[in-house]
Each structure stands twice: as C-alpha cells, then as structure tokens.
Amino acid sequence: MNSYFRRQVVWVIILGVSLSVGRADTNRAFVNFETAPVHPLDISPDHKVLALCNLPDARLDLFDVQGSAPLAIGSIFTGIDPVSVRFRTAREAWVVNTISDTVTVIDVARQEVLGVIRTLDAPADVVFAGIPQQAFVSCAGANTVQIFNTTTRTEVSRVKIEGDRPKSMAASPDGQRVYVGILESGNASTILAPGLSLTDRLPPPGPVEMAFGPHQGLNPPPNQGDQIIPPINPKIAPTNLPPRVSHIVKRNAAGRWMDDNHGDWTEFVSGTNAVLSGRVQGWDMPDHDVAVLDVSLGSISYVAGLMNIVMGLAVNPISGRLAVVGTDGSNEVRFEPNLKGIFNRVLLGLVDVQEDKQQVLDLNPHLTYKTNSIPLAQRRQSVGDPRGALWNASGTRLYVTGMGTDNLLTMDENGNRIGQAVL
C-alpha cells in the first residue's frame, strides 16, 4: 500500500475511534459490547474503494478513496458482528460475521449481497489462495479452517487446527501457503498441583510438597533464593500461614520445566516422577503459535516459540517473510507486587517459513522491565495490545497498530523502529 492510501486507512481508523469515544462520553448510560475485530479494513485491488466493518450496525461501509478524503458511497447489511473483510476481486468482498456464523459475499459495485455462506462456530477471518483459487475461513470456536469453492461457495474440505481459537490469517505471495494465527496459543507453561479431593477436605500432598523436589517440599515455594518476596507478614501466626498452592512452571529453550526461582521441575513434568503430577513420562505441551497450511501439498505444520497471544499476521509481499504481532505473559512469575506494570511483553515475530528461521523482537525496546513506572514520554512511545500489522508494497516498511495505546509504529524489514510512535 502506498503512502497515500495508508493515510486514508489511518484517517478512517482515527475517525472511527473518535466517534466511538464521543458517543461514550455524551451518553454514559449506554453500554455496547462488540467482538474484537480481526481484519476490519480492506482496500480494493484497484485502490478505489475502502471497505470498513461496522460492528455495531452489522454492516459493511464503503468509501471512495480516489479523492483527497474518503467519501462514503454505501452501506450493506452483513450479519451480526462483522469482524473481517477481504476483497477477492475489485468488485467482490467477503465479510466474516462471527456471531452469525456466516460469511457474506458482496458485489461492491452494485452494493448487493451475492450470497451467504454458513460456517462453523465463530468465524474470524478469510483469505484466498491456491490454484484454482479457494477461500480459507478460520473458525475460532471450532478450532478449524474451512475451505470453500469461490465460485459455488460450497465447502470443499476442512482442516483441524491444534490450538485454541485460530483467528487472524494471511496468504503467501505465491498463494501456496496459508498462515493461521492461533489467538490463545500458549507459551509452554503448566501447573503442578495436588490431586482433587472432596470439597470439605484439604487436598492431598502434591509434587510441590515432595521433599526431594527443587525446594525440598516448601509450599508455597520461595521465589528469590530461600526467601518469599514480598515477605509474609511476620504478624501472621504459624497456624495461619498461606495454604498449600499450585505451582506454575515454564519450559525453557533447553526443554527444561523451570519455575521463577530457577527450580527445575522437569522430572515431575516429563521425567521419571511425572506420575506424581498426574502425567506420563515424556509428557509435553504443544506451543503452536501459527499454523502453516501448504495448499499444494495439503499438509499442515506449526510455528512455535513466538508468544502466547497472537493478534495479527502480515506477509511481506517481496520476501515472503511472515510478521506476527501479539503478547507474551510472565505467568510463571508469582505475586502481584512483582508483576505490577511488567507482567506482559508486546512482541513481534519475524518468520521465514521456507528457511525455517525465526526471531522474536520486543516492540517496546526502550523498556527495561526493572521498574513498574516510567515517565510519561516513555509511556507514550510504548505500544500495547497490538491488533494490526501491514507491510508496504515494497516490503521495506511494517506498520503495527496498538489498540490499547491508540498509536501506530513504523518499522523496517528487520523489525527496527523508525521514528516515534504516532498517536
């Protein structure tokens, strides 16, 4: 997308946010629930029409963007909560309605509905790929991608996704691969807990209480050396000490299951003592962030180790490199004072699927995560809750929108920030 059309898209986004805020401020009794959008804006291949998902009104709004400012030219009813729109041709747009469980196919030139496709639960996004061209629809509620014939609009096949809530999608420049972002992909963390018991009884000892464990059976285990930080109130009597608790551990790059105090629990998770945590030896947890559908081979593979909440995808039109934006939580770190202000990371994953290479970058490189409060100027340069990612036509710039911070980042092809965040 060239700079002119990018400005028009940003202008419409800002206008939509401003109108929404204005309504909320003038009528505080009004309560509105909307499903989070996935790909709510798209521009026609001939760069003449901008399509916008109007979630509250269940409509697709159309704008002529050939002039100096977007001009509203029409609005078509779609279905409840349209979260994504994609142009298949210059005059045909497909709109995904997540609550209606439908995809509405619209003739943009005539502004009429050509057909309505029934889908599985909670469709989220659609892309077009393959020869002949097919439509791929991610269904978050069913953890499935449905594949439709674009001419007859009938289902051809479906692919089960090993992950929770596949949503955002993208296609490779050659149309031979479809990428599916898995919203709640996980970050290879799990819980060590005692077995279940009757409601009127304390649970039996679990792996955390084992004397031969990393912390010699102390529960709650220390989180800094042999100390619990923040310290337990010394006025609490020994009989009123905190009850036994579960313990979160996370698999590191070496495949070891570690806690926040360098305790190695691998033997209790996947090793010879796995039975003590209700597991079997060799137990593991998949960490599928992005599903890769090879259209020509009909196969599926996964990209792992990027983050645990995948918000958006974008494919570089020149290099084919995949950009993935989202967040990763420090859920293995315990106690609120230790997490205040630094419990989350906002990340960018750059993936070369063909060469099996990937890197993960912090979208807030100016943060040290050593303090829970920073000056206002630094906060304004931070991005939070990234939802959108878009490459320019030459593949030299990547734009990322922050929904939680109402700003826009510009980066080069290697993920380095260019300039300041735009509010």
Q: Helices and strands: which structural class?
A: mainly beta
What level of helicity do the residues show? under 10%
Tell me what portion of residues adopts beta-strand conformation: 35-45%
Radius of gyration: 24 Å
- Tell me about the biggest sheet? 4 strands, antiparallel
Our measurement of the CA-to-CA distance between the termini, rounded to an integer number of angstroms, reads 20 Å
* Uncertain segments: 1-25
Oligomeric assembly: single chain
- Overall, the morphology is globular
Return the average pLDDT rounded to an integer: 89
| Strand order in the largest sheet | 1-2-3-4
Order of helices and strands: HEEEEEEEEEEEEEEEEEHEEEEHEEHEEE
Q: Give me the number of helical elements.
A: 4
* DSSP summary, beta strand count: 26
What do these coordinates show?
The structure is a single chain. 9% of the residues lie in helices and 37% in strands. The chain has 4 helices and 26 strands. The strands form 7 sheets. The protein has a 4-stranded antiparallel sheet with strand order 1-2-3-4, with no helix packed on it. Strands 5-6-7-8 form a 4-stranded antiparallel sheet, with no helix packed on it. A hairpin with a 4-residue loop joins strand 22 and strand 23 (357-362). The two termini are 20 Å apart.
Q: What are the salient characteristics of this protein?
A:
423 residues; four-stranded antiparallel sheet; 26 strands; 9% helix; disordered N terminus
List the helices and strands and how they pair.
Elements: H1 3-26, E1 41-43, E2 49-54, E3 59-64, E4 71-77, E5 82-87, E6 92-97, E7 102-107, E8 112-118, E9 123-129, E10 134-139, E11 144-149, E12 155-160, E13 164-171, E14 177-184, E15 189-192, E16 247-251, E17 257-258, H2 266-269, E18 290-294, E19 299-303, E20 309-315, E21 322-329, H3 336-339, E22 344-352, E23 357-362, H4 376-380, E24 386-391, E25 397-402, E26 407-412
Antiparallel strand pairs: 1-2, 2-3, 3-4, 5-6, 6-7, 7-8, 9-10, 10-11, 11-12, 13-14, 14-18, 15-16, 16-17, 18-19, 20-21, 21-22, 22-23, 24-25, 25-26
